[in-house]
């Protein structure tokens, strides 16, 4: 499975790393969907032939689906109700999640290669180096926060004795899941963009200076660099601007099918 990535500078040294929206999620086969009930989960986990990591994935996906259902219920609650206010609080908290975390979460664990689209004026080695950097930092940061969130789950679960909804518990539970997915995406991305350097004895790296792209001789390369003149024209700054205009960002997001809100976050985010 090849995953497409879009990389471009958005403000000074701040670069945007984003993946086009995946519209195929609704078409996922039923056999690959997570269990919908505790009974189905218990049956799936107790299958002896299932690896331990696959069982952990089933449990995580089950919890994530339940949180999604609960979130949809809050979103559809009547205006000015307590549930609607909790939903508003959740929206505010989600808006503070760093865009790099959202990007790393979007890297599918089934990815076998990445296709990187970037402005043609940028050096391919620099783009790949920045990708490796964000992936390496992601493995360190999200592993730390993942274990930290796990320690907070028992503490926040004690608040269930209160008559009010246990918002801290569900938020910590969501953050645990989010850091887990971001950690997986970081490890997968780092593996893919570092594959060439790890197999330098058997793979030969070739650099095409005319197109400023990189690749290595392999039956199935784990990364492919695609310089884009169209993207280069869109990110060119005018009138001594330090960052891209909102119009340019919206246009880029429309052409490459990116989430505009997540892309705009990169203007003020350092990681």
From TrEMBL:
Cite the entry's keywords alphabetically.
Membrane, Transmembrane, Transmembrane helix
Membrane-spanning ranges: 145-174
InterPro entries according to UniProt: Mit_KHE1
Q: Which organism is it from?
A: Flemingia macrophylla
Feature: compositional bias, Basic and acidic residues: 202-213
Annotated stretches, region: Disordered: 200-224
Any matching Pfam family: Mit_KHE1
Q: Indicate whether Chloroplast appears among the record's keywords.
A: no
Is RNA-binding among the key words of this record?
no
- Protein's UniProt name: K+-H+ exchange-like protein
């Amino acid at each position: 499975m090849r995953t497409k990535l879009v990389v471009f500078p958005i403000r000074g040294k701040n670069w945007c790393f984003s993946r086009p929206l995946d519209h195929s999620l609704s078409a996922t086969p039923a056999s690959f969907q997570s269990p919908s009930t505790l009974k189905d989960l218990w049956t799936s986990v107790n299958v002896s032939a299932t690896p331990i990591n696959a069982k952990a994935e089933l449990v995580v996906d089950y919890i994530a689906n339940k949180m999604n259902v609960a979130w949809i219920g809050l979103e559809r609650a009547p205006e000015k109700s307590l549930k609607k206010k909790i939903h508003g609080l959740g929206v505010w908290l989600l808006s503070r999640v760093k865009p790099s975390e959202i990007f790393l979460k979007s890297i599918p664990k089934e990815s076998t290669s990445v296709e990187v689209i970037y402005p043609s004026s940028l050096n391919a080695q620099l783009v790949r180096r920045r990708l490796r950097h964000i992936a390496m930092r992601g493995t360190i940061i999200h592993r730390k926060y993942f274990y930290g969130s796990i320690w907070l789950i028992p503490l926040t679960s004690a608040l269930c004795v209160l008559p009010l909804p246990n918002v801290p518990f569900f938020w910590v539970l969501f953050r645990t899941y989010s850091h887990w997915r971001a950690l997986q995406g970081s490890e997968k991305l780092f593996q893919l963009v570092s594959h060439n350097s790890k197999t330098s004895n058997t793979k030969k790296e070739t650099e095409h200076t005319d197109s400023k792209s990189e690749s290595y001789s392999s039956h199935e390369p784990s990364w492919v660099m695609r310089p884009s003149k169209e993207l280069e024209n869109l990110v060119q700054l005018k009138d001594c601007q330090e960052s891209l205009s909102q119009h340019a960002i919206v246009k880029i997001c429309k052409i490459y099918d990116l989430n505009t809100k997540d892309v705009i976050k990169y203007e003020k985010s350092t990681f």
